[in-house]
């Protein structure tokens, strides 16, 4: 089996510490008033994932895009991430981000680490300011469908795809992949359904499965 495409989730998979959502809320001064309460309500099941994201960004209406970009530039990443993507390129493996995160952040990470394909959610911007609306290009449990489309476009078999993620929303992506990898701090159901479990501090170790 030869892996030709490695697909990654973004937040809490490639990043370390605060998620981009929390980082952005704190940068814009909306974490205590909106971000944290919405997150707690979502965890309690008061509304679904898509509704949560829409509510989460609505409070940013009228705020400058530059604040979001400042938050993005402050993000931290798991150790040896640049070396991991460099090694994947050397092996001829294409890479993709399939994430419910912010498209501006996914694009930034793509440029920083040299990632080939991006699927993420697009914040609407007008005249340099956020409108409070978001285009859900990766809604809810859609990651499997997007990986399937990417496989067709690249003419790849399931056995040629490796997927890396840490939440239940990554499980459809796992089902479309020949090899799935998660982390030892992921949810129990994700660890049970992944082919391999590694330490997040050792993402370079996934090269052993290629």
Structure in words:
By secondary structure, the chain is an alpha/beta fold. It has two domains: 5-16 and 77-209, 3-Layer(aba) Sandwich (Rossmann fold); 20-73. Helix content is 40%, strand content 22%. The chain has helices at residues 20-28, 31-43, 49-58, 65-73, 81-90, 103-113, 143-154, 171-175, 188-193; strands at residues 5-8, 15-16, 76-77, 94-102, 117-126, 129-135, 161-164, 179-183, 196-198. The chain has a seven-stranded mixed sheet with strand order 6-5-4-1-7-8-9, sandwiched between helices. Helix 6 links the parallel strand 4 and strand 5 (117-126). Helix 1 runs antiparallel to helix 2 (31-43), helix 1 (20-28) crosses helix 4 and helix 2 runs antiparallel to helix 3. The protein is globular, with a radius of gyration of 17 Å. The model has no long low-confidence stretch (mean pLDDT 95).
Properties at a glance:
210 residues; 9 helices; two-stranded antiparallel ribbon; alpha/beta; 40% helix; seven-stranded mixed beta sheet; globular
**Could you say how many structural domains there are in total?**
2
CATH class membership of the largest domain: Alpha Beta
Q: What separation lies between the terminal Cα atoms?
A: 8 Å
Across the major sheet, the strand order is 6-5-4-1-7-8-9
Report the sheet-strand fraction: 15-25%
Number of strands: 9
The helical percent reads 40-55%
Name of the CATH superfamily of the largest domain: HAD superfamily/HAD-like
Structural class label: alpha/beta
- CATH architecture classification of the largest domain: 3-Layer(aba) Sandwich
Low-confidence stretches: none
CATH topology of the largest domain: Rossmann fold
Question: Can you write the helix and strand succession as a string?
Answer: EEHHHHEHEHEEHEHEHE
Largest β sheet strand count, sense and barrel closure: 7 strands, mixed
- Give the integer mean of the pLDDT values: 95
| SS element count, helices | 9
Radius of gyration equals 17 Å
Q: Which shape, going by the Cα principal axes? A: globular
């Amino acid at each position: 089996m030869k892996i030709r495409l490695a697909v990654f989730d973004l937040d809490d998979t490639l990043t370390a510490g605060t998620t981009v959502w929390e980082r952005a809320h704190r940068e814009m001064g909306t974490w205590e008033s909106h971000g944290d309460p919405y997150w707690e309500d979502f965890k309690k099941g008061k509304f679904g994932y898509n509704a949560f994201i829409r509510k989460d960004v609505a409070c940013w209406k009228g705020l400058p895009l530059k604040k979001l970009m400042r938050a993005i530039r402050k993000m931290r990443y798991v150790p040896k991430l640049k070396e991991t993507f460099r090694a994947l390129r050397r092996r001829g493996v294409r890479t993709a981000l399939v994430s419910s995160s912010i498209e501006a952040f996914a694009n930034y990470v793509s440029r920083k680490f040299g990632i080939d394909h991006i699927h993420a959610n697009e914040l609407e911007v007008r005249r340099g300011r956020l409108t409070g609306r978001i285009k859900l290009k990766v809604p809810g449990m859609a990651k499997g469908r997007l990986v399937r489309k990417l496989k067709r476009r690249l003419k790849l078999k399931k056995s040629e795809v490796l997927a890396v993620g840490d939440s239940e929303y990554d499980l459809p992506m796992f089902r479309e992949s020949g090899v799935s990898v998660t982390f030892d701090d992921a949810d129990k159901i994700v660890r049970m359904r992944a082919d391999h479990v590694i330490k997040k501090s050792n993402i370079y170790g996934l090269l052993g499965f290629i």
